[in-house]
Amino acid sequence: MTNDVQQIKKLMNEYAWALDLCDWESLSRCFADPMEFHSSTMESCYDFPSLKAAVQARAPLFALRRHMISNQYVRIDGDRGYFYGNLINSRELALPQPDDLFLAGGYYRNQMVRTPDGWKIAVKCWQDLWTEGTLPAAMTASAPQFAPVMHGIDEGSTFGVPDEQASDPASSPRQAVSDAVLRLFRAADADDRDAVSVTLADADRILWPGAGSGNAVDALCAGGAKRMTYLTNELIRINPDGAEFASYFYQVTGGTDGSENRHTGGFLAVSLTQDKKGWRIRSLHYEQIWEKGKPLCDDPRDGTQLAARFLAPFSVADNAPASDEERIAELHAMYTWCFDAGDFALMESCFTEDVQCNFESGMGKRFDRRSMIDQLAIDRDLKPFYQHYTFNTLVSVEGDRAELNCYAFTRRTPDGGGPVLCAGGRYRATAVRQGEGWAFSHFHYQRDYGPYQ
C-alpha cells in the first residue's frame, strides 16, 4: 500500500520514462488540466498539446534520452503536493555524430494536485545548472530564461510550506530518514549555513573532505560555487538507537573562469538520531573514490574494499515497517552494492535459486543463481572499480509478484585501470515474495550507451 509521498515519486518516475520513450499518451496522463510547464531552456507551455509539440520538435536531435531523477523530496499540504528533485539528463546525439554524449543537470520544483484519478503535475518547473558536451546548432539559439525556480531552501521554508507543517502523516519511517539526509545536502548545495546547522546533531562527527574541528558546516556548504549533489542506491536501517543510511554519492561542481565542471563520486554513510524536531544527523562519513577524466588516485580495488565496508552494517535484515515497493527498491539497491563491493555471498539473498537472467552488456543469459553469480564475479574481477548509480525506480506489485524497472548510470575503470568511464542502461526485473521478504526470479540488464570518458 503506497502513501501520497510514494505516489508522487512514482508519478515523477513515470513522467521521466514516458518522456524518454516518447510515449505521449502515458505522458499526458501525468499532467493535470490545466497545467503549466516552465523551463530555463524552453518556451513556457500552458497546455499539454503545446508541450508535446515542443518536445517532439527536439526529439529527432537525439538518438537516446535519459531523464534521471534523484534526491526526490515531497511535502503534502491537503490536496496539494510539492516535489523537488535533482536531475541528470543524458542524451546521445543523433546529429552530427551518433556517438556523442551530452549531459545536463539541474533541478525540478513542481506543484502537484490531487485529482479523482490520482496525483497529477499542475505546475512543472525545470532549471538547468550545468552541462557537458556540445548541443546541436538547432538547440543553441537563445531561449527565454525562466527565472531560477529554486536554489536550496527558500527563506527557511520548503516550497512555501514551513518544514514543521509540511509533513505527510502517512509517510513511512524510511522516508523520514531519507528526507533528513536530503534536506542536509539541499541546504549545503544552496550554501545555506543555518539550514545545514539545523540538520546536524553533532557537528564534530562529520568526516568530510576539509572538515576539521569546528568547521563542519563550512566544509559541507558549497562556498558560493554552483553545485549539485545526487544521492542514489539508498540503504536504510532503523533501530531503537537511531537509524543508519548509506547511498552512492555523485557531485557536480561548476567550473570557474571557463574551466570544466568537476564530477566526483563515492560512498556516503550517515547515522541519525531522533528528537522532538525529527531525525537529525549524528555522524556523517563520505569517501570520494573517483573524479571524471582521471585515474583513481590509489589502487582502484580500494574502492571495492571501501564499498564493502560501507555495506557491512546493512547485511542484517531490516525489521522496520516498510511497503513492498520500498523493500523491492532496496533489494535492487542491495544488488548494486553487492556487485560493486564484490560481496557475492550476500548477493545470493537477492535472487531465487532458479533465477533467469540476461545481461546484454556481454555476459549473456544464465538460468540459475549459481552460474549467474559465478559469471558476475568473473566480470567484476576484470574491472578494478565499478559504481552503478540507479535512478527512476518503478515498482508495481500484484499479490506475491512484482515488476521493477530503473535506469543505470555507471562509472567504472576500463579493464586494467585508467580514467573513469561512464555508461548507461536499464534494468528490468521480476521479484517474487519469499517468506517475509522478496527475491528476483527474472533479471535483465540492457546497456543503452557508452562507455564514454
TrEMBL record:
Signal peptide per UniProt: none
Residues covered by the SnoaL-like domain: 3-122, 322-443
Matches recorded under Gene3D superfamilies: 3.10.450.50
InterPro entries reported for this sequence: NTF2-like_dom_sf (IPR032710), SnoaL-like (IPR037401)
Name of the molecule in the record: SnoaL-like domain-containing protein
